[in-house]
Design brief:
The structure holds two protein chains of two kinds.
Chain A: E1 3-7, H1 11-23, E2 27-31, H2 34-43, E3 48-52, H3 60-70, E4 75-80, H4 88-94, E5 98-101, H5 108-119, H6 124-133
Parallel strand pairs in A: 1-2, 1-3, 3-4, 4-5
Helix pairs in contact in A: 1-5, 2-3
Chain B: H1 2-20, H2 24-37, H3 42-55, H4 58-70, H5 79-92, H6 95-110, H7 116-126, H8 134-142, H9 149-161, H10 165-177, H11 183-188, H12 190-202, H13 206-216, H14 223-236, H15 240-245, H16 250-255, H17 258-270, H18 274-288, H19 292-304, H20 308-324, H21 331-394, H22 400-423, H23 425-428, E1 434-438, H24 439-449, H25 451-456, E2 459-464, E3 470-474, H26 475-492, E4 497-505, E5 510-517, H27 550-560, E6 564-567, E7 576-582, H28 585-595
Parallel strand pairs in B: 2-4
Antiparallel strand pairs in B: 1-3, 4-5, 5-7, 6-7
Helix pairs in contact in B: 1-2, 2-3, 3-4, 4-5, 4-6, 7-10, 12-13, 13-14, 14-17, 17-18, 18-19, 19-20, 19-21, 21-22, 24-26, 26-27
Classes of the chains: A alpha/beta, B alpha+beta.
Chain lengths: 137, 596
C-alpha cells in the first residue's frame, strides 16, 4: 500500500484529503507544519508528499528544497489556495511533480486522481492487458 | 499735508471736468495754475503734456513731459507713462523735432536734473542719442568691431563689477536698436556679439539674450549658440523662440552633440514627446561610450524617466569604464551632471510624497490578497468536506454520522468566514456617529471594559494626561484602536505585565499618545511589517485573533483621523507605540461649546 505525507497547517483540509485517499486504499499521515513535515519525511518511507505552500514557520518552498536535498525522486505535489503566492517556475526548478489549486477551485476528486496517477500511472485493467502481451517462455 | 492733498484733488477734478467737456484751453490754464501752486508735483505736468498732445501741440507737450521726467525722482515704475507718450509723439513729430527733444533730454541728464534710475530708463529706451557721457558714446563705436574684443570685454566686466547698469544697458540697447547695423557690421562684431549674448545669459537678462541672438547670430551654425538658445528657452520655460528659430527634427537630433542632446531631452520632455525623447536618449548612448560624466548624465536621465532597465545597463557600463581608466572631469560636464542629479532628486521628492499613497495602495493590495487567502481556507474545507461525502456516497460508504459531521463542519467554516468579516467592522461600519469625545475618557473606558481579563492575567495599567483633550470623530472606532493595542500587549505577555498610556499635546493643535508595555517587544526586523495586514507571529488556530489584522486595523482607523502610528525604536523595555493625531481646526473652534 502506498504511503502519502500531507504537510498542511489546516487540519480540516488535511483530514478530508486523508479520508478521501483512504477510500482509494492510499494511506496518509498528516504533519501540521514544515518542521513536523520534514521530521516525518525523514523517519517514514513515503511514495508521495502533498505540500501546502503557505504555512506559518517554514514556507512550502523551504520544505520542498529540504525534501529535494534528501530525496530527489519522491513525488511532490504542491497545492495552495491562492495561486499568486506560488512562483511555479521557481518551484519547478527545485522539483515538483504536480500543482493543484485549492480555494474556490478546490476539487477533492481531482486531487485524489492526481495523486493516484503519480503513484500508479496504470490502472489494474491496463496492467493485466500489458501482462498478457509479455511472451511466455 | 492733508489740506494740500485735498487742494490737489480739487484741481485735478476740475481739470478732468474741463477736459471731458472739451474745454482744453481752460484745462491748460487750470493745469498751469496747479503747476505754479505745486511745482514739485509731477502729476500736473503729465496732465498738461497729455492735454497739449490732445490739442496737437507737440513741442509744448514734450516740454511738459520733460518737466514730468525731472520730477519722477527715482520711480522707474512711473516711466511707463513717458513711454506711452513718446510713442505717440514720435509718430507725429518731425525728425527735427524729435532730435531737438532728445537733445533737451540729454541736456537735462547732463545737468543732473533727471534722477539716475530714470536716466538709465531713458538711455535704454531712447538709445545712445540721449547719452550724455562722451566716453560711453566713444565706447559704443568700439563694440561694432571685433578688433576691440578684449577692450570691450574688460570694460563690460568692469561695469558689471561696479554694478554700472546704465553702461551695460546702453551697449545692449545700442546693439538691439541700431537698425543701421548691416550684415557686414554683424560679421565684424560676431565675437563681441557672442560675448554679449553670453553676458546677458549669465546676468539673467534672458529676453535681451534671445533678442540679441536673433539679431546678431544668424545663421545658427555654432553648436554652442544652438545649445545656448535651447538652454535659455528652458530657463524661461518657453520654447517658442527655439521653435521658430531652429528646425528641430530627426536630423537635428542625430547631428546634435551631447550638450545639445542634453537640452533636447528637456525640450521633448516639456513637449511630452516620448518618442523623440527616447530617440534623443538613444543618440546620447553613443556619446556615453566615450565619457563617464556623459554616461552618468544619461544614467540620471533614465532614472528620471523611470527607465530602470536602461539605467541599469548604463550603470554597468559606467562601472566598466571606471575600472578601465581614471578620468578627469571637465567643469562644464560636471555642471550638467550636477543639474541632472538635481532633477533626479526632485523626482525622488515627488515620489516620496506619493509614497504614503502607494503605501496605502500596497496595504490595500496586501489586504485583498490576504483576504482571499483567508477566505480560501474555509472555502477549501467546505468543498473538500462536501466532495469527500460525495465520494463516500458513490461508494455507498457514507454513514449518518458522516452527514452529521459534514454539516457541523460547514457551519463551523461559515462562522469562521463571519468572524473574519466582523474583524473589519470597525473600519467599514457606517452606523458610526461623529462626536466630540475626551481622548482620556475613551481610553479609560477601553481598559474598564477589559478589566476582568486584565485582572485575570495580572496586568496593571496606568493612563496619564489631561482629561480635556478632545477629538472629533467616531468614538467607537477610536476605542477600537486601544482594544487592539491592549489585546496585542496581553497576548505578548507571558503571565503578567504593565501597560502605560501617556496622553500629551495641546488642545488646539495635536495630541500625542504613547502606548507602551513591558512585554518582549517587537523584533526590529518586524517593525515595518507589523502594520501590514495578515502579518502575524501568532498561531491563527489559537482562536485569539492572530490573523494579523489588529495593528492593520489600528493603522487604518488612525488614518481616518488623519493620524499616524509609529513604533518607538529606541524603546527597549517592551513595545512602545507613538500615536499622533491632529486636532481639527473646526473641532478646536467648537471646543468651547463642549466645555460649557
Amino acid at each position: 500500500m502506498n504511503q502519502v505525507l500531507i504537510i498542511e497547517d489546516e487540519v480540516a483540509t488535511a483530514s478530508a484529503v486523508k479520508d478521501a485517499l483512504a477510500l482509494v486504499d492510499i494511506s496518509a499521515d498528516i504533519a501540521v507544519d514544515g518542521i513536523a513535515g520534514l521530521e516525518a519525511f525523514k523517519k517514514g518511507a513515503y511514495d508521495l508528499v502533498l505540500l501546502d505552500l503557505k504555512m506559518p514557520g517554514l514556507t512550502g518552498e523551504e520544505v520542498l528544497s529540504a525534501i529535494r536535498k534528501d530525496d530527489p525522486f519522491v513525488d511532490v505535489i504542491v497545492y495552495t489556495n491562492y495561486s499568486e503566492f506560488a512562483d511555479i517556475k521557481k518551484l519547478t526548478n527545485i522539483g515538483i511533480d504536480g500543482y493543484i489549486n485549492k480555494g474556490p477551485d478546490a476539487d477533492l476528486q481531482e486531487l485524489i486522481i492526481a495523486i493516484k496517477n503519480k503513484l500508479a500511472p496504470l490502472d489494474d485493467n491496463t496492467i493485466d492487458e500489458l501482462l498478457k502481451d509479455i511472451p511466455e517462455k | 499735508m492733508q489740506e494740500q492733498y485735498l487742494l490737489e484733488n480739487a484741481f485735478s477734478n476740475e481739470i478732468f471736468k474741463l477736459r471731458s467737456e472739451g474745454q482744453l484751453d481752460f484745462a491748460i490754464k487750470k493745469c498751469k495754475e496747479a503747476v505754479a501752486k505745486f511745482p514739485e508735483n509731477n502729476f500736473f505736468f503729465k496732465i498738461l503734456g497729455d492735454i497739449y498732445l490732445q490739442k496737437g501741440e507737440l513741442l509744448e507737450a514734450a516740454d511738459a513731459y520733460l518737466e514730468n521726467l525731472k520730477r519722477l525722482k527715482n520711480h522707474p515704475g512711473r516711466f511707463r507713462t513717458f513711454i506711452r507718450f513718446y510713442r505717440v509723439f514720435k509718430k507725429r513729430a518731425s525728425e527735427a523735432l524729435d532730435y531737438e527733444y532728445k537733445q533737451k533730454i540729454k541736456a537735462a541728464i547732463e545737468d543732473g536734473e533727471i534722477g539716475e534710475e530714470i536716466a538709465e530708463c531713458l538711455i535704454s529706451f531712447l538709445g545712445n542719442e540721449v547719452i550724455s557721457d562722451k566716453n560711453l558714446i566713444d565706447f559704443l563705436r568700439l563694440v561694432n568691431d571685433d578688433k576691440n574684443y578684449s577692450e570691450v570685454v574688460s570694460q563690460i566686466n568692469n561695469w558689471d563689477d561696479a554694478h554700472n547698469i546704465a553702461g551695460v544697458q546702453a551697449v545692449l540697447q545700442h546693439k538691439l536698436n541700431s537698425d543701421s547695423l548691416n550684415a557686414d557690421n554683424h560679421n565684424k562684431s560676431r565675437k563681441i556679439d557672442a560675448f554679449l549674448v553670453e553676458y546677458c545669459e549669465k546676468s539673467g537678462r534672458l529676453d535681451s539674450a534671445l533678442s540679441l541672438i536673433q539679431k546678431t547670430q544668424k545663421p545658427y551654425e555654432n553648436r554652442a549658440m544652438i545649445c545656448r538658445i535651447l538652454r535659455i528657452c528652458r530657463r524661461t520655460s518657453d520654447y517658442s523662440f527655439a521653435e521658430t528659430e531652429l528646425q528641430i527634427d530627426e536630423k537635428f537630433i542625430e547631428s546634435a552633440d551631447f550638450n545639445i542632446q542634453y537640452e533636447l531631452v528637456y525640450y521633448f520632455e516639456s513637449k511630452n514627446d516620448a518618442a523623440r525623447l527616447q530617440r534623443t536618449l538613444k543618440a546620447m548612448e553613443r556619446s556615453a561610450n566615450r565619457s563617464i560624466p556623459i554616461a552618468r548624465t544619461l544614467y540620471n536621465f533614465y532614472l528620471t524617466f523611470n527607465k530602470f532597465d536602461e539605467a541599469q545597463a548604463v550603470y554597468e557600463r559606467i562601472q566598466g569604464m571606471e575600472a578601465r581608466k581614471k578620468h578627469s572631469v571637465s567643469d562644464a560636464r560636471r555642471e550638467e551632471q550636477l543639474e541632472s542629479e538635481q532633477v533626479v532628486w526632485q523626482r525622488m521628492k515627488e515620489l516620496v510624497s506619493e509614497q504614503e499613497h502607494n503605501r496605502q495602495m500596497m496595504a490595500m493590495r496586501e489586504l485583498l490578497k490576504g483576504f482571499s487567502h483567508e477566505l480560501g481556507q474555509p472555502i477549501t474545507n467546505i468543498r473538500y468536506a462536501v466532495q469527500l461525502h460525495q465520494m463516500k456516497m458513490q461508494r455507498r460508504k457514507d454513514t449518518p454520522q458522516d452527514a452529521e459531521s459534514l454539516m457541523k463542519m460547514i457551519l463551523e467554516q461559515t462562522s469562521r468566514i463571519g468572524g473574519l468579516l466582523a474583524r473589519f467592522g470597525p473600519i467599514v461600519s457606517s452606523r458610526s456617529q461623529e462626536e466630540f469625545f475626551s481622548v482620556k475618557e475613551c481610553i479609560s473606558q477601553v481598559f474598564g471594559d477589559l478589566n476582568a481579563r486584565l485582572q485575570a492575567q495580572n496586568i496593571v495599567y496606568s493612563i496619564q494626561g489631561p482629561r480635556d483633550i478632545y477629538l472629533y470623530g467616531n468614538q467607537t472606532q477610536f476605542s477600537q484602536v486601544f482594544y487592539n493595542l491592549v489585546l496585542n500587549s496581553m497576548q505578548a505577555f507571558e503571565k503578567e505585565g504593565t501597560i502605560r498610556v501617556v496622553i500629551s499635546g495641546n488642545r488646539h493643535d495635536v495630541v500625542r499618545i504613547a502606548f507602551s508595555d513591558n512585554g518582549p517587544g517587537i523584533p526590529t526586523e518586524n517593525h515595518r511589517k507589523v502594520f501590514e495586514p495578515f502579518f502575524s507571529t501568532k498561531d491563527p488556530t489559537m482562536g485569539n485573533g492572530g490573523e494579523g489584522l489588529g495593528l492593520f486595523i489600528v493603522w487604518n482607523i488612525l488614518k481616518m483621523f488623519d493620524g499616524a502610528i509609529h513604533i518607538d525604536r529606541a524603546y527597549k523595555k517592551g513595545a512602545k507605540f507613538l500615536i499622533t493625531l491632529p486636532i481639527k481646526k473646526e473641532a478646536a473652534l467648537n471646543e468651547s461649546s463642549i466645555n460649557n
